[in-house]
Amino acid sequence: MNNITTTASINFSLINQIINRYVSIPFLFFGIIGNILNLLIFTRKIFHNNICVTYFRASTIFDSLVIIVGLLPRLFNGFGIDPTQYSTVLCRIRFFITYFGGYTAAWFISLACVERYLSSSRDIYKRQLITMKRAYISMICVMLVGFVAFGEQFYCIDINQNLLGAPQSCYQLKVNIHCQIADSLMQFIFEILLPAIFMVTFGLLTLRNVHQTQNRISAIRTNHLPASHQLTNIRNNTSFSVEVNRTVQKRDSQLITMLLIQVAVFVISTLPISIYKIYSIATIYSTKSTLRKSWENTIFNICVISLFINNSVTFYVYTLTGRVFRKELMKLFRLA
Fold first, then answer.
1. pLDDT for 26-64, tens place per residue?
2. Pfam families, per this entry (predicted)?
3. pTM score of the predicted model
4. Contact residues for 167 (Cβ-Cβ < 8 A; gap 6+)
C-alpha cells in the first residue's frame, strides 16, 4: 500500500512522458540535420576513394535510420499517439530496425578502426589487405549477422506488455523469461560489448602505430640529415610529391582523431544501457515491488535516450575534431 502511494505521489508516468516528449525533440532535430550534412560532406570528391570514409558514410546512413525509427515513435509516445504501441507488426519492425541499425552503425565504426590500424601499419602486407571490395564484403557480412542475431525480435517482442509491468506497451514478452534474457543479451553483446572491444582494441593499436611511425621519422631526420646543397636538390625535384604526401598524411591523421573521439562517444553513451541490461538480467527472477518497477522503468527510459546520443552527435564530433571535415563543410556552404 505504501509503495502504491509513493508511486502515485511521484507520478512516474508523467516523468516518462516528459522525457519522451521534450528530450527526443533536440536529438531528432540536431541528429537529422547533422547526419544529412555528414552524408553531403562524405560524398564529396576528396573522400571518394577513402575506405575509412566509406565506413563513416555507411554508419551515418544507419544512424539516421535509428534516429527516425527509434526516436520519432518515442516522441509520438510522449503525446500519446505512437502507433507502434498498438500494432504488433509496427512494434516488432520498430524494435528490429532500431536494434539492427544501432548494431550496424556501431560495427561500421569498428571496421573503420580496423582499417585505420591496417593502413597505419609499417607492414606492407597488412596495408595491402585494405581494398574497397573487401570493405563492402565486410559490411555485407555485418548486416547478415545482424539479421540472424536480431531475428528473435519477430517472436520475442509484442504489444500490451505494460500491463505486465513493462516500461511501455511495445516491449519484450514479460511472460517469457527466455525471450527477455535472449533479447537483452543480443543487444548487449552484439550492439554494445563486441563493437566496443573492437573499437578500443584497434583504436589503441592505431595509436601505437602512429606513435611508432612518428618516432621512426624523427630518428631518420636526426641521424640522416643531408647536406644543405643535397637538401636543396631534393626539394627542387620532389617538392610536389612531398606536398601531396603531407596532405594525405594530414587527412589520414585527422580521420584517426575523428574516429577515436567517436569511439569515446560510443563507449560513454552506451555505458548506462549496458549497466541496465546487466542489472535486468541479474535480477530477472527477483520479486519486485510496484515502486521498484516504476523506478526501473524510468531509469530504463533515460538509458535508452542516452543511447541515441551516439547516433545524433557524429556530425558535431567530426566538426570539432577534424580540420579537413570543417574545410569541406565550409566549401559545401559556399556552394549553397
1. 999 999 999 999 999 999 988 888 999 999 999 999 999
2. 7tm_1 (PF00001)
3. 0.87
4. 16, 296, 297, 298, 300, 301
